[in-house]
Amino acid sequence: MASTSEIRNGMCIDFNNDIFQVIEFQHVKPGKGAAFVRTKLRSLTTGRVLDNTFPAGHKVDDVRVERRKFQFLYSDESGYHFMDNESFEQLALDEKLINNPKLLKEGTEVDVLFHATKDIPLTLEMPQYMVLEVTYTEPGVKGDTATNTLKPATVETGAEIKVPLFVNAGDKIKVDTATSAYMERVKQ
Predict the structure, then answer these.
(1) CB atoms within 10 A of CB 3
(2) CA distance linking residue 78 with residue 27, whole number of Å
(3) Domains of the chain, first to last
(4) Is there a contact between 154 and 137 (Cβ–Cβ < 8 Å)?
(5) What pLDDT shows up at residue 172?
(6) pTM of the full predicted structure?
């Protein structure tokens, strides 16, 4: 059992007969009334995000998780396949356990969170940024840079990302894996 004062980002809790991960939290002490903790929780089984408010001092059931390093191998109709870097065992995960699976590139190292007592995979955490090569995009129109316009681009993994007009096919770009947003162009 943990108190609301121990809530932090990434913490896993057992709530409403499901396992949730804390995405955001904020301790609030209004001028009048009791303090509370406002949270944004993501279900590790369904991926659903919900907002919940806990009163200050409320007890929550924290779930002990283990973080293990895996390497992405390939994907097929049975799921996404990963290899444990230490034991070389392979693991197949369902697409719903992965946030933005289209950004996974072969050989990428990821963290898989396992329920410590049941030894079942809960979710997959990708690196914060991925460097991907643009395989196709329309050429930008010269002089059309007065506004902050974006155009669609397809990257090497097959995902489609909105990029600025100056990005061309063959460029390497840095992509935020949480939002699938373009961050910057990477020097080659």
Answers:
(1) 14
(2) 42
(3) 2-62 (2.30.30.30), 65-125 (2.40.50.140), 129-186 (2.40.50.140)
(4) yes
(5) 93
(6) 0.74
